[in-house]
Design a protein that fits this description.
The complex is a heterotrimer of chains A (624), B (525) and C (315).
Chain A lengths: L1 H9 L1 H19 L36 H37 L1 H16 L2 H12 L3 H27 L3 H8 L4 H37 L11 H8 L8 H28 L1 H4 L11 E2 L13 E11 L4 E12 L4 E5 L6 H8 L8 E10 L2 E2 L5 H7 L4 E4 L3 H4 L6 H10 L6 H14 L5 H4 L9 H13 L5 E5 L7 H18 L2 E6 L2 H7 L2 E6 L2 E7 H6 L4 H9 L48 E3 L2 E3 L12
Parallel strand pairs in A: 1-5, 4-9, 4-10, 7-8, 8-9
Antiparallel strand pairs in A: 2-3, 2-5, 5-6, 10-11, 11-13, 12-13
Chain B lengths: L2 H20 L13 E6 L14 H10 L4 E3 L6 E3 L2 E6 L5 E6 L13 H12 L20 E8 L2 E6 L6 H6 L8 H7 L13 E7 L3 E6 L12 E6 L3 H10 L4 E3 L14 E7 L2 E7 L9 H10 L2 H8 L4 E3 L23 H11 L5 E7 L8 H14 L3 E7 L1 H8 L9 E7 L5 H6 L19 H12 L3 H18 L2 E14 L2 E2 L15 E2 L1
Parallel strand pairs in B: 1-10, 1-11, 15-16, 15-17
Antiparallel strand pairs in B: 2-3, 4-5, 5-7, 6-7, 8-9, 9-10, 11-18, 12-18, 13-17, 13-18, 14-18, 19-20
Chain C lengths: L1 H28 L4 H6 L5 H11 L5 H13 L5 E2 L4 E2 H36 L4 H15 L2 H15 L17 H35 L2 H9 L3 H39 L4 H10 L3 H29 L6
Antiparallel strand pairs in C: 1-2
Helix pairs in contact in C: 1-12, 5-6, 5-8, 5-10, 5-12, 6-8, 7-8, 7-10, 8-10, 9-10, 10-11, 10-12, 11-12
The chains are: A alpha/beta (624), B alpha+beta (525), C mainly alpha (315).
Chain lengths: 624, 525, 315
């Protein structure tokens, strides 16, 4: 609850809305004890006195009544009605929705047809007819407004309940012999409650508007009592001559509804689980760059990272995802980057072309040189020209990374047309050729398939084909085989290997699986907590790891080609990158650690082709 | 066509629509040609068949398209010849013989004659008439006294009544008595209401549903052709919108100007026209049960309400304080010696104390609008406050007009102590006869919803109806007014002065006490 | 697809029938009857009874309903008591006016709403986003009838740019520019709320989509920002925007009642309010059937559009 309030308070607009609403509500609550004129005392000789004149702060209405007093009393009434209607509609609507969603089948069908009918009925007319049938009065207007809103709640809640009703915990409760009523109350209701609250908070404003509308049509409160809507309705006839009598209640409605909407948005955002981790933000076209110094260029390969640093800056925390990584890859070479989840390997890869989601991502230091030119902080257009053209990516989960609504052929063609003009037929031919090159059978028909119509392996081949579209110099493959089964994985690896040999493409291959590294990579870099802890030729590292972490990683690889095994076999967890320890980040989990390990920065010692960041390296059997 | 193409195309089309909408060409001030008068009406007419309609709003059009046998003399409520050139009334007041005007033709070219008159009344009154099914004819009871209509010769027609009925001539001047073309009824049947044909100064041209009813000058009008070429009646239900249209120049004339808007029309660009009419706005008091069963409490209510403030402030002077049940517009029948109840809260309190009705709780039916109801919610609220001030606890219940009538007309017993009401009539007989007699209690089919009963009043009203001499009738009505004022079955509140605003281009326009809108002599430059 | 549409159409029939039953029941519950409404001050029980007999309202309600239903199925919607005119003529006249108004408003609010939402999302936390968010919030918080009245005061009475009310000029109008002139204010006033709702939803849908992996893929391919936003993100966001358009279409159709009253638009919303007040059952019945049918049709269109847009949906 406090967390919720804190989140709510963080949203400045919601805070303002909440404050405004609080002021209005407090005023409304205090109205009876405020020193106000009697709202119902009529003084027809002093009608339509302007605001701030001798007729009181806001002047008087068409019967000479004090507008300020009427406004506050009216606000009180309108708020009460709005809230009551929202609660009534939410309770009944949610009840109906839960029943329909929980029982399903014929009950559901019957209820939802009824709801459909009510929804197809113009709501104002329904409200009008209900009020006409029940007689006038605010209570009946309330009933009408609540009634016309029930279908919306019912529909919303039904959908969610139907989703929950078949979850395991509900089945479990049913098997445990719980009665339906109890399941609904103890299992379903707590889960739909946040949704009800969200829906309610966003509809209260709407309710107040609707009640005002009905009052405007003369179907609301009974004179002399007035809610804001009937004040507006009564003042309307004098709109042209004395607009202030209309504007006063009109503006109050505006303020209340706006405040409620702002607050409602805040409540919705605060209750939304995705937002607990931070604001719902969209990534910008390229990662933000905020670096003070640029390292000097070193002539080293087609693509080189130098002391690259990338952080995630959230509200009050900084996650140093990449803490100074230097790596390079030569033409035709395959470099593997290996590490556990969260070690920063993907962020490193994405930083290269400025694809780290930003906000919250920021590149805070270092350089990435493509053919010698630094591309960190390069103008967006330059960066765009390189992306997919010279440096291409292959991503992990192709179902999520391919656009679900476009045919794969169109997506392939777009990869080309983003960089050069291409005719329709030429594009199609090229797309077919690309699909062929990644050994997709029957490419002429596959080109018209949507991603969801393909198997995982096929989709990954499409992803690879897309990366190849412009004959790039570098391919960065971010765990391209993780989601695939072993045989498909082997095929994909073979494919990549062929490409590298045939086309001389440099490949940066990111994985957490040494088995995969062994098959494909010339060199490998091991990442831990945002830094490289060991680097060297694959064979050398596999046979004789120097860093204790590397050793543990290699130990996780099954001896014989069995099923894949996860790295979780290492006890403990990697440190949080927002709270890195001094010294070796692995010290906590390392059985060889000594106080010196935690004393200060550990150097990345290079000797020959290998380098390691450890003061107690594993003993090396033989020459390095 | 792929979806993107489809999206792009629809975007283009929509974009064009937006561009057009936003590209609001040159400022358009609605200019209407001279000779064409545009009238802002308060509602869409129901039909243009005079026998089928009941609303003043519809009458405003009909009176310009049709003529009756008689009509009201300009500026009065007294009858004068129209399609009939003269008439004889039998001694006992039951036989009326009319001589008809020669050479008059309906707009459809057929001749007006005695057969046409008989057709009109038979259609309305005889259930076996072949065109009775073109009804229903809600106000046919205006002529329920008519036993039969006989054609004596083509220009003479005789009405036989089942009893003497003094208001008969006045009722003939009422829109229900307007004469329609039999040929047109035969041709259009139930659709006659949208294809009207009469003998009036204007003939029907076009009815664009909810936009306008257009009538054009009838060059062959028997009483002289009009200056105007055409009149357009525009229904604009919302009073604000109507006012805005008038200010913006979209209409040349508007009727029933909301009191609060009057100040906007004070300049030279507009003419404001006023005319008191046979209208009375009152509160029905439930004399059968509750506090108002006591005459002193009813009188107290009359004293407690500040009628001056109501008519001068709430209604901005568009009404005068009413003294009794008969409006002064019926000059010949009005009792000029009658003084309205003064505003005297002290006296009211004293009367309440005397009757032991201090702090009585009352239910007050208020309507939201309705024919002749003026500004009923504001008035009801002000009345409630006045009664509150003398110690009566009044609870208002508002109803939309039709529901309101459904609640009030069957009687207030068991439901309410008081209710707003207003009547516009054409004869001093109508209102008291239908709403004050003992025989007019709701269960007997009348409108005496407050159950007032005074045998003397009953007797006076019966004899006034049967008397054929106007002087004698006047005396009876005046006596009745004195008694009723003292008995106070109602709170007499206001007599409306109907108003209209015209632009400065409109000349020769006057309102009539009958509340009809006669445009025959109007000129528009 | 055709079969699907047919199936949906068939399933709409019981909904429509149900609606007519509800209308009939509600109208039966409302005190007062058409005769009282027609007779006004002269509605004595005797007159009312006679008129009801003339109007054929003395029959039991169930009988009235089935007579109506039978006639309607043969295309006869009956005669309006209050307007003395065949219901179908009146409804068609008025309905087309409402379609023009609500249709324009709907196009306006869809285009502006989506545009505002996309711009807002693309410039999240920038000035444009804040400005749009504020205006949108203002839009969804203002009662449309109030806005309409204010617009009349400003644009018609003060500035005299636009006509106050009506659909066509009374004289010399009737062409498209004339219609657009009259349409400008009511269509905008009607579109405001829906624009706000659509803009808010489009914004959050866009934000949601922009965080997706396939957007990163598009960027990694070197697609420009314009392509990323409009081609990739909007296309995917439309999947969640379109159902909202469907709901908003219903709101626009309903909200037209107020706007039609304020701007004197000769539409079906105002007609229905009048008809309810005058207890003109057949007219209410006929009008509601049309409005509801329109709503149902629109829902079907939305679903079809949805399935055309999203190949993952099976029809």
């Amino acid at each position: 609850m406090t967390a919720f309030l804190a989140l709510l308070a963080r949203n400045r607009l919601a805070l303002w809305g909440g404050l405004a609403l609080a002021v209005v509500v407090v005023l409304a609550l205090l109205t009876p004890i405020l020193p106000l004129a009697d709202p119902d005392v009529i003084d027809t000789a002093n009608r339509f006195k302007p605001a701030f004149g001798d007729g009181g702060w806001l002047g008087t209405d068409h019967l000479g009544r004090d507008l300020l007093s009427r406004l506050l009393w009216g606000t009180r009434l309108s708020l009460a009605v709005g809230f009551a209607a929202a609660i009534a509609a939410a309770t009944l609507g949610a009840g109906i929705g839960i029943i329909a969603g929980y029982y399903g089948g014929r009950t559901d069908n019957l209820i939802m047809r009824g709801v459909d009918m009510l929804m197809a009925f113009p709501y104002i007319l329904l409200a009008l007819a209900i009020v006409a049938a029940l007689g006038p009065g605010l209570m009946n207007a309330l009933i009408a407004v609540a009634a016309v809103n029930i279908p919306f709640f019912a529909r919303n809640i039904r959908g969610i309940t139907a989703g929950i009703a078949h979850k395991e915990f509900v089945d479990a409760a049913r098997l445990a012999g719980m009665k339906d009523g109890r399941i609904i109350l103890t299992e379903i209701l707590p889960n739909v409650l946040p949704v009800i609250v969200i829906a309610m908070s966003t509809t209260i404003g709407w309710m107040i508007l609707e009640t005002a509308g009905l009052s405007f049509l003369g179907l609301g409160s009974q004179p002399p009592q007035a809610d804001l809507g009937s004040m507006l309705g009564e003042a309307r006839s004098a709109l042209i001559t004395n607009p202030h009598t209309s504007i006063v209640p009109g503006v109050m409605i505006l303020i209340i509804v706006m405040a409620i909407n702002l607050l409602g948005d805040g409540v919705r955002d605060a209750l939304d689980p995705r937002l607990k981790s931070g604001a719902l933000t969209r990534p910008m076209a390229a990662t933000l760059v905020d670096r003070t110094d640029v390292p000097k260029a070193e002539d080293d390969g087609v693509l080189a990272m130098q002391d690259l640093k990338t952080e995630f800056r959230l509200k009050n925390r900084v996650y140093k995802a990449v803490g100074g990584v230097s790596l390079s890859v030569r033409k035709g070479e395959c470099l593997g980057i290996i590490g556990e989840s969260g070690s920063g390997k993907s962020v490193t890869a994405l930083s290269v072309m400025g694809l780290v989601a930003s906000p919250p991502g920021v590149i805070t230091g270092g350089a990435v040189r493509f053919e010698g030119t630094d591309i960190i902080g390069a103008p967006y257009e330059d960066l765009r020209q390189l992306r997919g053209n010279r440096v291409a990516y292959i991503f992990q989960d192709p179902l999520a990374t391919l656009h679900p609504l476009y045919k794969v052929g169109d997506q392939l063609i777009e990869a080309i047309s983003a960089h050069r003009k291409i005719s329709k037929s030429e594009g199609r031919a090229k797309a077919i050729a690309l699909l062929q090159s990644v050994r997709i059978p029957n490419p002429e028909s596959r080109i018209d398939s949507y991603p969801h119509e393909m198997s995982g392996g096929m989709r990954q081949r499409v992803g690879i084909a897309m990366a190849l579209a412009n004959d790039p110099d570098v391919i960065i493959a971010d765990e391209p085989t993780t989601a695939l089964d072993v045989t498909v994985q082997a095929q994909i690896l073979a494919l990549l290997n062929d490409l590298r040999r045939e086309r001389g493409v440099a490949i940066i291959f990111i994985t957490h699986d040494f088995g995969v590294v062994a098959q494909l990579c010339d060199r490998v870099a091991v990442m831990y907590a945002g830094r490289i802890v060991e680097e060297g030729p694959t064979d050398a590292i596999l046979t004789a790891p120097a860093h204790p972490y590397t050793k543990r990683l290699i130990d996780c690889v099954p001896e014989l080609g069995g099923g894949r095994r996860r790295l979780a076999a290492i006890p403990g967890l990697p440190p949080m990158v927002d709270d890195l320890p001094t010294g070796c980040a692995f010290a906590e989990r390392c059985d060889k650690s000594t106080p010196a390990c935690r004393a200060g920065e550990i150097a990345f010692d290079r000797s020959g082709l290998r380098a390691v960041r450890c003061i107690h390296p594993e003993p090396q059997g033989g020459a390095l | 066509m792929t979806l993107i193409d489809w999206t792009r195309r629809s975007l283009l089309v929509a974009g064009a629509a937006v561009a057009l909408t936003l590209n609001m060409t040159a400022p358009v001030v609605a200019q209407t040609p001279p000779g064409v008068l545009i009238v802002g009406q308060i509602a869409e007419p129901k039909a243009l068949d005079p026998a089928a309609v009941t609303a003043v709003n519809d009458f405003r059009i009909l009176m310009n398209v049709y003529d009756g046998l008689v009509r009201y003399k300009d500026g009065t409520l007294e009858t004068e010849p129209a399609l009939a050139t003269g008439w004889d009334i039998s001694e006992d007041g039951t036989v009326y013989t009319f001589q008809l005007r020669d050479g008059v033709k309906f707009h459809d070219g057929t001749a007006f004659n005695a057969d046409a008159v008989k057709f009109n009344f038979d259609r309305m009154l005889k259930e076996d008439h072949p065109y009775h099914n073109t009804g229903p004819f809600p106000l046919s009871f205006f002529f329920s006294a008519v036993q039969n209509v006989e054609v004596i010769d083509p220009l003479t027609v005789k009405f036989t009544l089942n009893a003497p009925y003094a208001p008969f001539l006045s009722n003939l001047a009422y829109p229900t008595g307007l004469i329609v073309s039999p040929a047109a009824v035969e041709k259009f049947g139930a659709e006659f209401g949208r294809n009207p044909s009469g003998t009036g100064p204007f003939k029907f041209a076009e009815w664009r549903s909810n936009e306008a009813v257009v009538v054009e000058a009838n060059p062959d009008y028997w009483d002289g052709a009009t200056e105007l070429q055409a009149v357009v009646f525009r229904p604009i239900t919302d009073a604000n919108t109507r006012t805005a249209e008038m200010l913006a120049g979209g209409i040349d004339m508007m009727v029933e100007v909301p009191p609060v808007a009057l100040s906007k029309f004070e300049g030279d660009a507009f003419h404001l026209v006023e005319q008191a009419g046979p209208h009375v706005w009152f509160l029905i008091l439930n004399a059968k049960e509750g506090p108002f069963a006591d005459k002193r409490v009813r009188q107290a209510a009359n004293y407690a309400i500040n009628k001056e403030a109501l008519v001068n402030d709430v209604l901005e002077g568009t009404a005068a304080v009413a003294a009794g049940p008969t409006p002064p517009a019926f000059a010949w029948a009005y009792n000029k010696t009658l003084q309205p109840y003064a505003y005297d809260p002290e006296k009211a309190k004293a009367l309440l104390a005397e009757a032991g009705a201090e702090g009585a709780e009352l239910t007050f039916y208020v309507t939201e609008g309705g024919s002749g109801m003026l500004d009923p919610i504001a008035m009801g609220t002000a009345i409630q406050a006045d009664l509150q001030a003398v110690g009566l606890k009044v609870k208002i219940e508002t109803y939309e007009w039709n529901t309101f009538l459904g609640q009030v007309n069957p009687g207030l017993e068991g439901k309410a102590d008081m209710a707003e009401m207003a009547w516009m009539t054409n004869d001093p007989d109508t209102l008291p006869y239908l709403a004050l007699r003992t025989e007019a209690w709701p269960d007997k089919g009348g409108f005496n919803s407050g159950y007032y009963s005074n045998p003397k009043v009953d007797e006076l009203l019966e004899s006034a109806r049967a008397a054929t001499d106007q002087g004698e009738r006047a005396k009876l009505y005046q006596e009745m007014q004195t008694i009723v004022q003292d008995d106070a079955p109602w709170v007499f509140v206001a007599n409306w002065k109907q108003n209209a605003v015209t632009s400065d281009k409109v000349e020769n326009f006057a309102l009539q006490p009958s509340f009809f809108l006669l445009l025959k002599d109007v000129v528009k430059n | 697809m055709l079969g699907y549409i047919l199936k949906r159409l068939v399933s709409a029939v019981p909904v429509l029938l149900g609606i007519t039953v509800i209308v009939f029941l509600i109208m039966a519950m409302i005190p007062g009857d058409p005769a009282t409404a027609i007779l006004g001050s002269y509605a004595t029980p005797e007159n009312v009874e006679k008129l009801n007999r003339d109007l054929g309202l003395d029959k039991p309600l169930v009988a009235q309903y089935f007579i109506w239903l039978g006639n309607m199925l043969q295309g006869d919607f009956g005669q309006s008591f209050a307007l003395n005119r065949p219901v179908l003529d009146e409804v068609l006249d008025r309905f087309s006016a409402t379609l023009v108004l609500a249709g324009t408003a709907f196009v306006l609010c869809s285009l502006l709403g989506i545009l505002a939402g996309v711009v807002s999302a693309a410039r999240q936390y920038g000035f444009a986003d804040k400005a749009i968010t504020f205006v949108v919030l203002l839009g969804i918080s203002i009662p449309s009838f109030f806005l309409g009245m204010m617009m009349i005061l400003l644009f018609a009475v003060q500035l005299r740019w636009l006509p106050v009310s009506g659909m066509y000029a009374i004289y010399g109008g009737g062409d498209l520019p004339d219609l657009l002139n009259h349409l400008a204010m009511p269509a905008c006033a009607l579109a405001v709320v829906a624009t706000g709702v659509i803009a808010r939803l489009s914004r959050s849908a866009m934000l949601e989509v922009l965080r997706q992996d396939f957007i990163r893929t598009a960027r990694a391919k070197g697609v420009g920002e314009r392509g990323v936003i409009w081609r990739h993100a909007l296309r995917a966001a439309m999947v969640s925007i379109i159902p909202v358009l469907g709901i908003q279409a219903g709101f626009v159709l309903s909200g037209a009642v107020y706007i039609e009253m304020v701007f004197q638009w000769p539409g079906v919303g105002r007609m229905l309010v009048d008809a309810i007040l005058k207890r003109d059952i057949l007219l209410v019945q006929g009008g509601v059937v049309f409005v509801a049918a329109c709503y149902v049709m629109f829902n079907i269109i939305v679903d079809v559009a949805q399935s055309l847009l999203d190949p993952r949906i099976k029809t």
